[in-house]
Amino acid sequence: MIHRLLSTQVIPRPLDEVWEFFSTPKNLNVLTPSEMSFEFTHGADEPMYLGQLIEYRVQILPLIKATWLTEITHLKDHSYFVDEQRIGPYQFWYHEHRFTEIQSGTLTTDTVTYAIPLGSLGGDIIHTLAIRPKLQSVFSYRQLKINEMFAHE
């Protein structure tokens, strides 16, 4: 079953500044909760480009780390980019990041379309009880960190 998570946030900073931060792959580490033990293994040292492969390890369950390889499959400068999982814990992962300049700063919109690798019956239960809440908590954490980092000066 395909699931979708939508997260929006207004960042009170100019689009150029917001884009520069989000299009720098290594900054993902700052936006990931420490309990996920996130670490890059390859591809995050360069500015983002179409076709870029970024590999990292992430704690998905206590004592279980997974390798996650994503590819930047769509990219329009100062507008949007998409990362798609090539290897990782999901059956399917398509994460679209959009950036829109608005009067009060920059509107960011994350749309994650994903599927988990379990059958529909067990997968629905695990998704409802564990996976969806975990994803929502990661995006809530990101919003808090972004608010801290991009607060009005």
Describe this entry's structure for a reader.
The chain has 153 residues and is an alpha+beta fold. 25% of the residues lie in helices and 42% in strands. The chain contains two helices and seven strands. It has helices at 15-22, 120-149; strands at 3-11, 39-42, 53-61, 64-76, 80-87, 92-102, 105-115. It has a seven-stranded antiparallel β-sheet with strand order 1-7-6-5-4-3-2. It is globular. The model has no long low-confidence stretch (mean pLDDT 91).
User: What is the number of strand segments?
Assistant: 7
* Terminal-residue CA separation: 44 Å
Question: Major β-sheet, in short?
Answer: 7 strands, antiparallel
H/E element sequence = EHEEEEEEH
Radius of gyration: 16 Å
Helix content: 10-25%
Strands of the widest sheet, in order across it, are 1-7-6-5-4-3-2
Number of helical elements: 2
Q: Which structural class should the secondary elements be placed in?
A: alpha+beta
Which whole number gives the mean pLDDT?
A: 91
Beta-strand percentage range: 35-45%
Question: Looking at the structure, what is the overall shape?
Answer: globular
